[in-house]
Write a structure and sequence with these properties.
globular, Spore Coat Polysaccharide Biosynthesis Protein SpsA, Chain A, 34% helix, alpha/beta
Length: 251
């Protein structure tokens, strides 16, 4: 049985963090290490986290250099065989999600695993806005704007130790760069679990404004250069087109 470290990073989000915490603590999987990295919240978030006491395996609250720096802190603190992230705005769709991922990784003998995600309304998590439906991974799919969603991505800690954590030079798309580096560049083995794993509230850093969407796509391009991978110019069109089509897959 894998020990799975789930990391939540948060800063000043007392309204939603409690639901994210409960989504992890309600998992039926028995071998979870739950780590929360808080960026020095001042709005009462820390009090909510502390109210769960020892059910939180590890907790730190201090200033950081952005979300990916905080995520790297969480990875460094983790002692599990597998690492995953559940942001403070997000939820697992069921209390058996982690168990299903662990079973899939063991069955496939894979070093990573991913599934689909629902983008949901910020105030009503039962209202699906967009369905990020993925597919079994093959090298080259990134060139067509098809890649695993980070919120539904689980990876062995040993892989991160070998190939590196989040590259904090990327302020918006370090999650994209990490998965690109692991799967496309280094060929880390992975398996696809064809079901929705996570509900992700709309309004994330990469898509909360037109400017950030442009910045995120520019960073995705830089990620290819950073890793010495040949870039497909058509990617500039295929990536947003692929996302647009997901708005019609709400079930």
């Amino acid at each position: 049985m894998f020990k799975i470290s789930i990391i939540t990073v948060v800063r000043n989000n007392k309204i939603m963090v409690e639901n994210a915490i409960k989504a992890v603590l309600n998992q039926k999987y028995p071998a979870i290490e739950y780590i929360i990295v808080d960026g020095g919240s001042t709005d009462g978030t820390v009090d909510i986290i502390k109210s769960f006491g020892s059910r939180i395996s590890k907790f730190v609250s201090e200033k950081d250099n952005g979300i990916y720096d905080a995520m790297n802190k969480g990875i460094a603190m983790s002692t599990g065989d597998v690492v995953a992230f559940l942001n403070a705005d997000d939820l697992y769709v069921s209390d058996s999600t982690v168990q299903k991922v662990a079973d899939a990784m063991i069955k496939a003998g894979a070093d990573s695993c991913y599934g689909d995600i629902f983008y949901v309304d910020k105030n009503d998590t039962n209202k699906v806005v967009r369905h990020w439906k993925s597919r079994p991974f093959k090298k080259g799919l990134f060139k067509y704007g098809i890649y695993p969603p980070h919120p539904g991505f689980f990876v062995k800690k040993s892989v991160l130790d070998k190939y590196g954590y989040f590259n904090t030079k990327f302020r918006i798309s370090a999650d994209y760069e990490l998965i690109l580096r692991l799967l496309e560049k280094h060929g880390v083995s992975t398996c696809y679990l064809p079901e929705v794993l996570v509900k992700m509230r709309v309004g994330g850093e990469s898509n909360k404004s037109i400017i950030n969407i442009v910045k995120a796509n520019l960073e995705c391009y830089k990620a290819w250069r950073e890793n010495g991978l040949p870039f497909n110019p058509v990617f500039v069109l295929l990536k947003p087109l692929n996302k647009f089509s997901q708005y019609f897959l709400k079930q």
